[in-house]
Every structure is written in C-alpha cells, then in structure tokens.
Amino acid sequence: MLNKKKTEGRGACPFRNLKECSTECVMYRKGVRFSDDQKAEPFPFEECALNIIADNLEAMHNRTYMMQKEVGDTKNVMTLKILSDLGRISPDEVGRQALKIITPPDKPEEVKKLTKE
Q1: Residue 3 CB neighbours (<10 A)
Q2: Looking at the domain assignment, is residue 49 inside a domain?
Q3: Residue 31 pLDDT
Q4: What is d(CA 117, CA 95) in angstroms, rounded to the nearest whole number?
Q5: Lowest mean pLDDT among 66-70, 86-90, 101-105
Q6: Most exposed of 33, 89, 99, 101 (fewest Cβ within 10 Å)?
Q7: φ, ψ at 48 (rounded to 5°)
Q8: In this structure, what DSSP letter does residue 102 have?
Q9: What confidence score (pLDDT) does residue 113 get?
C-alpha cells in the first residue's frame, strides 16, 4: 500500500525551475477534494495537476490493494470452511484461524479476547 505524501500549500514547480506553483501555469488547478471518509467535509485545494494525478493514482492503487487483500482473506476463510466440512480440521480451529485472518493487524488483542470465550 502506498503512503500518501502530505503537502502544505502549493509546492515548487518542476517546470518553472522549482519556483512556487502559480495561477499563470497551465497545470495549476483549484477545486474541492472529497475524502474517502463519508463523514469528512470536502476541503479546498490549489495544486499542480501532476500532484492531483499522482494522488488519484495512489488512491486507486490503495483501493485495489485493499480489495485484493479482502478477496484473499475471503478465499482463505472459505478454504478453512471446506477443510472443516471434509473433516480435515476441527470447526473450533476454523473459527480461530478465521478470526486471525479477518482481524485488522493493528488489533491483535481482539483475537485473544474472542478466542478465549
């Protein structure tokens, strides 16, 4: 997953010998951005079109990465269920492994709480 680079205000323009981006430039854009978070308010921006394109490509890459991860996790859980149905592993083990797969990596304590119950 790509980490988004934070920019403060308008950056230096590579086409104008790294001078500040200006409204006179053909690549200058001014508008409103919407966050992926539905609850967040739209915010205004003034940037070079190249920065906007890069941000959009990074967002598309991150969405694709997350979708592929979710599909992989779903496939793994379904495989565990099939193995359980065939009698290769116990249903309890399926539950523990499924929890490990679907729990976010930054919350390992959730797996510990759920597997103890």
Answers
A1: 7
A2: yes
A3: 87
A4: 12
A5: 101-105
A6: 33
A7: -75, 145
A8: H
A9: 61
